[in-house]
């Protein structure tokens, strides 16, 4: 959550480094920290993107197969009901 506020000391900021820990850094050091964090997260996204695409393709195949099975079962039920 972000709320508007005013800084008393614009040269030093408090940043959240994760798991509930905060560190006081200079504004320039904070910019460097967030640049490194963005670079790290970008690399991680690029690394997992192929796996996610493969999983999406697998999910689509499973959904298609399930749809075919449901249609077969529906058709089978309809023919059995017609015979009765």
UniProtKB/TrEMBL annotation:
<dbReference type="GO" id="GO:0051082">
    <property type="term" value="F:unfolded protein binding"/>
</dbReference>
<dbReference type="Pfam" id="PF02996">
    <property type="entry name" value="Prefoldin"/>
</dbReference>
<dbReference type="GO" id="GO:0005737">
    <property type="term" value="C:cytoplasm"/>
</dbReference>
<dbReference type="InterPro" id="IPR004127">
    <property type="entry name" value="Prefoldin_subunit_alpha"/>
</dbReference>
<dbReference type="GO" id="GO:0006457">
    <property type="term" value="P:protein folding"/>
</dbReference>
<dbReference type="GO" id="GO:1990113">
    <property type="term" value="P:RNA polymerase I assembly"/>
</dbReference>
<dbReference type="GO" id="GO:1990114">
    <property type="term" value="P:RNA polymerase II core complex assembly"/>
</dbReference>
<comment type="similarity">
    <text>Belongs to the prefoldin subunit alpha family.</text>
</comment>
<protein>
    <submittedName>
        <fullName>Prefoldin subunit 5</fullName>
    </submittedName>
</protein>
<dbReference type="InterPro" id="IPR011599">
    <property type="entry name" value="PFD_alpha_archaea"/>
</dbReference>
<dbReference type="InterPro" id="IPR009053">
    <property type="entry name" value="Prefoldin"/>
</dbReference>
<dbReference type="GO" id="GO:1990115">
    <property type="term" value="P:RNA polymerase III assembly"/>
</dbReference>
<dbReference type="GO" id="GO:0016272">
    <property type="term" value="C:prefoldin complex"/>
</dbReference>
């Amino acid at each position: 959550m972000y709320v508007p506020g005013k800084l008393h000391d614009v040269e030093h900021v408090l940043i959240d480094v994760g798991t509930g820990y905060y560190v006081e850094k200079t504004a320039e050091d904070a910019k460097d920290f967030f640049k490194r964090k963005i670079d790290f997260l970008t690399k991680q996204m690029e690394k997992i993107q192929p796996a996610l695409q493969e999983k999406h393709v697998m999910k689509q195949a499973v959904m298609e197969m399930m749809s075919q099975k449901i249609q077969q079962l529906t058709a089978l039920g309809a023919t059995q009901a017609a015979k009765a």
